[in-house]
């Protein structure tokens, strides 16, 4: 024997630590359940605007959600929770920006804006696509995505799927890998998923 006193484990502290860990885990579960409820309430705030921007088009307006602090927080949480593992988040102009930036910040990754044509000084790729009410082009900046990076594409609404498909094509042209597409609202009748065959698509709500 060396004469040294062997340190005995502090059982009371250990039990207390386990209790604190369990309490923290329970609080996390409660928080998730609460936020899930908040998310549903937030999604209920989405406003339908008929005949905008063209006659016969039903526009889904997120303004009531974005202007409410609690609803906005729940929406950002919901999108972040739905995002696949990625190195960078791509937000589609314009409402996709409003979601992609806070999600990227919260997840500790970068955010790449997918812009409408003519908005970038240095363009890496450009893709034309069909809208529910016309045609448009999307662009991505030079150097925004590094080869091999996994990219989560975020937008507000999945309608015909043309916009999201164009964004995915841009990501791939830039050398990235599409980890998945996350949208707030999916309009099932327009079958936008058909344009995104082969990609993981997650919608917080389908109507």
CATH fold name of one domain = Rossmann fold
The average pLDDT is 86
Question: Which range best describes the helical content: under 10%, 10-25%, 25-40%, 40-55%, 55-70% or over 70%?
Answer: 25-40%
List unreliable stretches of 5+ residues: 1-9, 11-19
Q: In which order are the strands of the major sheet placed?
A: 5-6-4-3-7-8-9
What CATH architecture of one domain do you see?
A: 3-Layer(aba) Sandwich
Number of strands: 9
Main pleated sheet: 7 strands, mixed
Computed structural class: alpha/beta
Per DSSP, the total helix count is 5
Text of the CATH class of one domain: Alpha Beta
Given the C-alpha coordinates, what overall shape results?
Answer: globular
Terminal Cα span: 75 Å
C-alpha-based Rg, rounded: 22 Å
Q: N-to-C SSE series?
A: HEEHHEHEEEEHEE
Strand residue percentage: 25-35%
Function: Catalyzes a salvage reaction resulting in the formation of AMP, that is energically less costly than de novo synthesis.
Subunit structure: Homodimer.
Pfam family, one: Pribosyltran
Protein name: Adenine phosphoribosyltransferase
Explain what the structure shows.
The protein is α/β, with parallel strands linked by helices. It has a domain at 84-206: Rossmann fold, CATH 3.40.50.2020. Helix content is 37%, strand content 30%. The protein contains five helices and nine strands. The chain has helices at residues 11-43, 63-66, 69-82, 95-107, 162-173, and strands at 47-50, 58-61, 88-92, 110-116, 123-131, 134-141, 150-158, 177-186, 201-206. The strands form two sheets. It has a seven-stranded mixed β-sheet with strand order 5-6-4-3-7-8-9, sandwiched between helices. Strand 7 (150-158), helix 5 and strand 8 (177-186) form a beta-alpha-beta unit. It catalyses: AMP + diphosphate = 5-phospho-alpha-D-ribose 1-diphosphate + adenine. It is an enzyme of class 2 (transferase). Pathway: Purine metabolism; AMP biosynthesis via salvage pathway; AMP from adenine: step 1/1. This is Adenine phosphoribosyltransferase.
